[in-house]
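Reagents: none. Just compute today. MraY family glycosyltransferase.
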Amino acid sequence: MIETLLENFTPENNITIWLVAAFVIAFFVAYQTFPTILYVAKEKHLMDEPDSRSVHSDKTPTLGGIGIFVGLIVVMTIIGAFLNTKVLLLIMGGLTILFFLGLKDDLTVLSAGKKFMGQLLAAGLLIVFTNTRIIGFSMIMEIDILPYWISIIFTLFVYILIINAYNLIDGVDGLAGTIALCVSGIFVYLFVNAHELSLATIAIALCGCLLAFLRLNFSSRNKIFMGDTGSMIVGFLLAFFTISFINMAQLDGSSPYFRASPALAFALLFYPLMDTLRIFFLRIVVHKTSPFKADKNHVHHRFLRSGYSHLMTTILISGINVVIIGIAFNLLHLNLNTQIILLLLYGSVLYVLPFLIKKIH
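Predicted 3D structure written out:
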């Protein structure tokens, strides 16, 4: 009976059941994994020690990325046989590389150079062996198709940018997880519409893992951080989703996102990219220091200093990012350069509003 069911079952004809199953498996596995991680972290004293940059006063486990990784790998292993196994295996390879690099960084210390090389290796595997890359600028500043090697190098740059931009916003309870949850949910919608079930499955599995993680990340008694392990693998997947979406749109002239995919991708990740650009500007131009020197000048730090709680900061930043994405979807008919200029304008204004409202009150 089971053999007959497996032979006749096709995910494409049962998309809703398939995606719900992937979500439930990922959530359940991660949900059951986190208590064990908490127990081991506390017993072995694998905790984050608060320092001058911390916004927490208590020691907290930083191994939440393990639960996210396990949930993703279990989903891809169990249901991978039905999908594009080449893509899944390469993603699993990239995730594994970053998982062990992040774990070493969370447990001891890993140099920025080694992390950078690991990120390049993980991204390079996917770019070269799946040929998933940004093939052009879609006429941004009148630039269309890029030469192959420039396309490779630019795509690698985008991977590194997104992975590290995502890592930089992991400074407030729930913020990184909530942003990734919202963005991954939208990618599920985009990939289903593009008939890319393998990518939709990974995206919804990530949603399940993140939802299980956020339960503890918001907790006051059993709090856990995703750490570098989590931020690198989640950032890597968000970068892969972004580049895959742009690549699919650029190769499909009938796609509604054919010319608009770069603007929509920028909107999806507006907060981490905007915050990274802003923090680098402050460090290099204003403070005359290294762009990689950690400080407390991120937008989420400004929210906290203005009197917003961790929860309110996360709600406001995530909510604004969702509004920005909603506006971007409604501007797809405009010229791409116009979309990007407007995005920079209304995105910046929306993130200034909470501070103006706070001053008025």
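The mean pLDDT is 88.
Action item: order primers for follow-up constructs.
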